[in-house]
Amino acid sequence: MCEDTREGGPCRKYECRHNLFHSGLRLGSRFRETPLAESLNNCEKNIKRRCKLREIAEMWGMSKERVRQIQNLAVLHFIQGLKKEVDVT
Length: 89
What we know:
Elements: H1 35-39, H2 53-60, H3 64-88
Helix pairs in contact: 2-3
């Protein structure tokens, strides 16, 4: 568990890669911390199973469709990164 979550409150360390609202995710201003995210102390390490889009949307305070769009962008960026690695080697 991260240091900030040991004290019982949700983690506010947004530069931590385990934070559900990590600054590197570039979620923008549309997300909001929700009771579900706070119950997990805003830390991915407290998630014990795969989440459905609906559950992620509930954590981030977004629509399921928006989470799906973000997921598709992440997959696209991942594939582009793999192609760059293959082209370099």
